[in-house]
Amino acid sequence: QVQLVESGGGLVQTGKSLRLSCTASGDRFSISAWGWYRQGPGNERELVAEIRPGGTVDYANSVKGRSTISKDSTKNTWYLRINNLKPEDSGVYFCKADAGDGFNWQGRFWGQGNQVTVSS
Fold it and tell me: How high is the pLDDT of residue 70?
């Protein structure tokens, strides 16, 4: 029902910056939470950053202070920018959207995943 397409991954050098984008499309949906997750080899998917319902913003400790999540609701698009990239930032990044809310839950949706590799 809701499709998430993300872009912006690739190979980046240590110390540089990267911005990922995610765009949602579908019919009759409203996103209540916008998130980014990362999964490294042999690791579980973990939260990197999220705009929660009501506007609260959370960041993982690993990126806190050098990462920014933002959104453009008119375009159903949200972004993750990470500055001063480190090799440990490498992994497959997935965008996530929670559509609807407790009053009218529409589902949780995931992007296809983008590989980010930070070279040292």
Answer: 98
